Amino acid sequence: MMQTLDRAYFESLDRTDPLAHFRESFELPPAHIYLNGNSLGALPKAARQKARDVVEGQWGNGLIRSWNTHDWIHLPRRIGDKIAGLIGADPGEVIVADSTSVNLFKLAAAAVKQNPGRSKILSEPGNFPTDLYILQGLEHFLDGQVRLVTAPRERLLDAIDEDTAVVVLTHIHYKTGAMFDMAELTAKAHAKGALVIWDLSHSTGAVPLHLNQVQADFAVGCGYKYLNGGPGAPGFLYVAKRHQATLQHPLSGWFGHARPFAMRDDYEPAAGIERTLCGTTSVVGASLLEVGVDLMASASMELIREKSMRMGQLFITLVEERCSKFGFGLASSKDPEVRGSQVSLTHPQGFAIMQALIARNIIGDFRAPEILRFGFTPLYLRYVDLWDCVDALADIMENNLWDQPAYHQLTAVT
Ligand SMILES: *Cc1c(COP(=O)(O)O)cnc(C)c1O
Predict the structure, then answer these.
(1) Cis omega (within 30 of 0) for bond into 76
(2) Pocket perturbation via mutation, ligand 1, pick of 40, 130, 203, 218 by most ligand atoms within 8 A of CB
(3) In a 3-state reduction of DSSP, which class is residue 370?
(4) Contact present, 275 and 80 (Cβ < 8 Å)
């Protein structure tokens, strides 16, 4: 028998949800439905106390002594090792540093250097803007030594050739949630002698990852999305052990030196992953990121994925049932196996419709030109939230409530 999809059914799913108790660990404003944790994760309750400890205690009282007494110096590596556990890497292969954009620049430059005699950096059109901009910047900086080539997804595998130094792709697409087969693409690239950099911004903390199992070369990722590290939290990067000894990147700052406090004139890279560091760690930001990473590490990634896939299927079914006559399209795959932790709808009035939802404290986001994004964060999202979201969406459409001047006004950040 088909299950009737009503509010009571979604409440019953929450009652038997093995991850339900994690919601208590987050501070969410009352009467909000937050479907944007894929862009800025929610605030873990423990981060409040941690911020106080770090600012008042470690900084205020400890002053500069805290580099040693509170082990600030090892924060990038300590949190990196914890993130390694979330992405199928080994300790010593991941480090927390800088932003995703800066980390991508370091690794793309390093990969080109690592694979000499090849002139192509391959990506796909429509990749996340910063990824393409960073690669364009590198291309200009190297002045003809490499060129950025993009190939659409269906031709990507064939576009990897003997001239390809590095393939740079976002594992889960920010707009559609489409997920690459990381093992297949990595193997294909390696067969042609190309290296691969994966951007894991929408993957880490959202889906199980097995970087070492697929023999990944390099990766970068984001701290403030599914890892709940806070706005502008530092990013991270991964370098497979086998590449570390020869890796050279252009931002050879003192924190990447073998002995930063020997204060020598000449740069000598640290032996391991630390050589990818550049300057002083953002201690407050990294400390808060650790809270989010610890919380994520205490949950089962398999359960997270299971709930996320189920939420996606239920959301799509509800939208089909309740909103089919309002002109929405589906920009995400219906197959949960190849979809990340989000569902994207399309609508010509997408911006105004999303503003109308946000006015009801149902927060997703809009990505130009017509995508409405709904992100699912299984640690703090309830099944009943999905019901209430689509219920509100149906009401907004049925009664044309989106068609108000205030909802058409573009904001600086969408
Ligand atoms: C969010 C995101 C980034 C963020 O980069 P920043 O340097 O932190 O601004 C990069 N790449 C992708 C694919 C993202 O989704």
Answers:
(1) no
(2) 130
(3) coil
(4) no
Burial class (CB in 10 A: 0-12, 13-18, 19+), 335: exposed
pLDDT in tens, 178-190: 999 999 999 999 9
Tell me, yes or no, if the pTM score tops 0.70: yes
Q: Is 195 left (phi over 0), alpha (psi -120 to 50) or beta?
A: beta
In three-state secondary structure terms, 26 is strand
Q: What spacing in Å lies between the alpha carbon of 201 and ligand 1's midpoint? A: 6
Percent of the chain with pLDDT over 90: 97
DSSP 8-state code for residue 279 = S
Q: Catalytic site residue 373?
A: yes
Q: Looking at ligand 1, which atom is closest to the CA of residue 128?
A: 13
Q: Is the pLDDT of residue 197 over 70?
A: yes
pLDDT at 258 over 80: yes
Set 34, 128, 315, 376: catalytic member? 128
The verdict on the CB of residue 100 being under 6 Å from ligand 1 is yes
Closest to 354 (Cα-Cα) out of 311, 404, 393, 310? 393
Dig out the tokens for 352 from the structure: 């105004």
Q: Which ligand 1 atom sits closest to the C-alpha of 102?
A: 7
Burial class (CB in 10 A: 0-12, 13-18, 19+), 245: exposed
Tell me the pLDDT of the chain averaged across its residues. Answer: 97
pLDDT digits (tens, 9 = 90+) for 294-347: 999 999 999 999 999 999 999 999 999 999 999 999 999 999 999 999 999 999
Pocket test for ligand 1, best of 36, 39, 101, 175 (most atoms within 8 A of CB): 101
154 exposure class (CB count in 10 Å sphere: 0-12, 13-18, 19+): exposed
* Residue 223 confidence class, pLDDT cut points 50, 70, 90: very high
